[in-house]
Structures are given as structure tokens and as C-alpha cells.
Automatic annotation (TrEMBL):
Pfam families: Peptidase_M23. One of its GO terms (molecular function) is metalloendopeptidase activity. Coiled coil: none annotated. This is Peptidase family M23. It comes from the Bacteria. Residues 166-227 form the M23ase beta-sheet core domain. It comes from Streptomyces harbinensis.
Amino acid sequence: MSTYRVCFWIFVALAALEVVHGIPVFLPWAFLLVAVTSQYLSTRAPRRHTPPPAVEVAAPVTGRWLALNSPADKVPSHGTYQYGQSHAIDIAAEPADGSRPAFGWWPLSRPARAFPAFGAPLLAVADGTVVSARDTQRDHRSRNSWPALPYLLFEGLFRDLVSARRVIGNQLVLDLGNGTYALYAHLRKGSLRVRAGDRVTAGQTVAECGNTGNSSEPHVHFQLMDHPDPAQAHGIPFTWTGVGVPANLETFTAPDPAPAVPGKRRLP
């Protein structure tokens, strides 16, 4: 458990004791200060860590998609280096007919199946071995409206206090070799086609896009990292064969699966 979570729950316990038994009031607030400081430090670049060159892999999807929270625009792409997501990207299916529901005021939320990304096949980006695979968390309704945004932020904070798994949702981690691991997050419940220890080949369907964990709508969260456990990992830059690294709000079409050379590195 991270320093942030430990200190926060100690704060909660001491705050309750302060009310019931009158312990010194500074004690709980001292732990809260440590918790906030620890969480702030997680947004900063790790000391003495230089990201390696980008690793070229195939795209994890095919078809027309929209990029969100892209490392092409900023690093860390998600505002934090925590969970190895400094160079992560979010993508949502964006059909040319405009059938993806827009962010707005109403309705407050929609069922996951209302989004074209939900159930989309996810592909192995290179040959590799399955390190971990979990798909037992339920798919929840969307939070893609202005009134639902505060709820999403509060929910994300609570999920983070519980565990990294509740943030990432259903997940798949592939060992691509040469110290490179691929993480797929927010997978659809029950959609995994592989399990730990399985060998996969580039382009193989491994799971489906879902809406689990800290997710506003069904989308693919993809990242490369240098450790199989996101809680201990640093992010690794990536580039997708035939696509590159799409920028925020850039629509792109991912080609049909093509074999990628695991461990091949080049600058995008």
C-alpha cells in the first residue's frame, strides 16, 4: 500500500479518535499533510530517471478512433507519473457517422453499450507473454456529462484510496521482452481471451474495450512501462506502427493488424 493511502486512512482513524477520545488535534492533520504531500510528489518526474527511446509496437485497435490524454501533447499525459502512466494514451472509438455520444449536460449518464468503443476487440501489440489478466469488475454507466464530472473526480479519489486495481479497472499486462510491458486498462467484464502465462502473437484478439475502473466512458487506456506492476513502474514512450503517436483530439485510423518486432526501439 502506498504512503498516500496509509497516511490518509491513519488520518481518518485519528480524526475519529480525536472526536471520541480527545487525542491531540495536530496528530490526524499531520498525517493528512503527509498524505497530500506524497500524492503531490507522485505527479512529478522520478529523480534520476530518463525515459528510454520510444518502443515501436502495433496499435491495440483497428478502425477509426479519437485520441485523448496523449503524450504527444504533454508528459505526463495524465498529469501524474503514478502507475507508470507518464506516456499513456486514452482513445475512444469515433465512427465517421458521429454515433459516439457527445459530452454535454444531458443525459447525466448512459449505459456503456451506448458507446461504439464498448466491446471493440483489443489486439496484442506485439508477440509476448501474459503476465496478469483480470476481468471481474463490472462495467459501469458513463460519467460523460458536466453534472457527472464532479462525481467522477470524487469517485476517482476514492478508488485511488482503495487500490490501484480500482483505478485501472479490469486489466491485461503483456511482457513484450527487453524489459517492456504493455498495459491495457478498463477492459470489459468477462472479455479476456487469455490468462496469465499464455503466449500471444501480434494482432491476436486478447480482450474487449470496456468501462471499468476510473473511466468516464468506454475507452482504451494503453501504456508501456518498465515493470509488470503499475504501482512500481516507470512509463516508456511508444509509437504505433502506421499511426505514430496521435495528439489530443486527433482522429486516426488504425490499420489492420501487422506483426511488430518486440523490443524494437526508435524515436517517433
